[in-house]
């Protein structure tokens, strides 16, 4: 299988449906794409009804393109990440992985257009993030929840407003930012540095005002990131967590019990914003983002220092701090339901606390004059 054939198949997969986000190549299945959150097969001529192990392995080798580091990583660790460009058509973030001694591939399509906060309809706190001078900002969520896109929008906002040096450490580079007011140096793991920790250590000598770290994967990267934030840099990074409050516990979990108090003090002093996001099915097709946002105020800093307690949980502080731009997933989903962007079923399926969302949905229905229950003809027993 030659590169021209690979490019032809990828082009056909992209053009098969509208709003294709992922291409999936798995043994025993046809070529598949994810469109609007659903995985669907792609018809090709000649047809590939069930891909063989040989076909997916050849496809993988073409995408690796003889890169020794990627080949060694794939053989040693069982998976590798890379980027692939379809000239004039699209760029992809590629993950090749071994499963039951066969190779599977997932290609995530990367946007060629740099998104803006306005285009994505992001909440007001994202504009405030772009104005921060130092500290740490975390954007968290599961894989495929749009973290990189939201971060690209924040960096674009900085690019429009700040004459600053911005260094990014990515795996791989997803959005290629042009130089506007800011000066961008975008470094890719494998080609420009070997680990996030070493890349970050080097970045501190490169005179940046803003440092983007693709992902804080380990203790060493977090430690150096905190040091960078403490010395006047603005550090922006991602984590994999289910809500904003859990991000603190995730970071603490990377350190020993003996270090916990010191790390809590450092986090309380450096964290500016934590945003967690989920993508929900939108009414009429497509997807819409829901946000869980924590900002830095006295109550949040105190809770980071001393841990959560009754009446002082991150969730309760978020609910009481809406004027600071904070919001919980549940409150944001109720807003999305009120605007008619998601259904009641979607809100209840993706929320954190069903009781709170259920009451919120009922209040919205009452305002609209809709029934809040399907129980009818209730009568009081007078006997």
Automatic annotation (TrEMBL):
- Which Pfam families does this one have? T2SSE
GO MF terms, alphabetically ordered: ATP binding; ATP hydrolysis activity
Q: Which residues cross the membrane?
A: none
Output the SUPFAM superfamilies linked to this UniProt entry.
P-loop containing nucleoside triphosphate hydrolases (SSF52540)
Question: What InterPro entries does the database record attribute to this sequence?
Answer: AAA+_ATPase (IPR003593), P-loop_NTPase (IPR027417), PilT/PilU (IPR006321), T2SS/T4SS_dom (IPR001482), T4SS_GSP_E_ATPase (IPR050921)
State the family it belongs to.
Belongs to the GSP E family.
Q: What is this protein called?
A: Twitching mobility protein
Q: Which species expresses this protein natively?
A: Desulfonema magnum
């Amino acid at each position: 299988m030659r590169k021209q054939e690979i490019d032809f198949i990828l082009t056909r997969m992209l053009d098969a449906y509208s709003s294709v986000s992922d291409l999936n190549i798995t043994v025993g299945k046809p070529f598949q794409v994810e469109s609007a959150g659903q995985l669907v097969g792609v018809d090709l001529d000649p047809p590939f009804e069930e891909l063989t192990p040989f076909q997916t392995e050849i496809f993988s080798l073409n995408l690796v393109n003889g890169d020794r580091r990627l080949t060694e990583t794939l053989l040693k660790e069982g998976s590798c990440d890379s980027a692939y460009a379809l000239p004039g058509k699209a760029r992809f973030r590629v993950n090749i992985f071994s499963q039951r001694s066969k190779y599977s591939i997932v290609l995530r399509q990367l946007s060629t257009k740099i998104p803006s906060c306005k285009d994505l309809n992001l909440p007001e706190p994202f504009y405030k993030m772009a104005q921060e001078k130092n500290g740490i900002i975390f954007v968290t969520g599961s894989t495929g929840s749009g973290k990189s896109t939201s971060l690209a929008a924040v960096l674009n906002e900085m690019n429009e407003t700040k004459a600053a040096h911005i260094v990014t450490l990515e795996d791989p580079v997803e959005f290629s930012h042009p130089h506007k007011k800011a000066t961008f140096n975008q470094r890719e793991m494998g080609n420009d540095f070997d680990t996030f920790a070493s890349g970050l250590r080097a970045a501190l000598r490169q005179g940046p005002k803003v440092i983007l770290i693709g992902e804080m994967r380990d203790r060493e990267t977090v430690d150096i990131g905190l040091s960078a934030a403490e010395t006047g840099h603005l550090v922006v990074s991602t984590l994999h967590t289910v809500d904003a409050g859990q991000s603190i516990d995730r970071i603490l979990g990377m350190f020993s019990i003996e270090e916990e108090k010191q790390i809590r003090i450092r986090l309380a002093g450096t964290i500016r914003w934590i945003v967690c996001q989920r993508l929900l099915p939108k009414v009429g097709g497509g997807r819409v983002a829901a946000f869980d946002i924590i900002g830095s105020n006295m109550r949040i800093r105190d809770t980071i220092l001393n841990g959560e307690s009754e009446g002082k949980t991150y969730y309760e502080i978020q609910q009481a701090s809406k004027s600071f731009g904070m919001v919980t997933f549940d409150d944001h989903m109720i807003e999305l339901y009120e605007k008619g962007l998601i259904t009641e079923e979607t809100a209840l399926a993706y929320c954190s606390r069903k009781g709170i969302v259920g009451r919120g949905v009922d209040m919205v229905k009452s305002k609209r004059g809709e029934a809040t229950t399907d129980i009818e003809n209730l009568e009081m027993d007078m006997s």
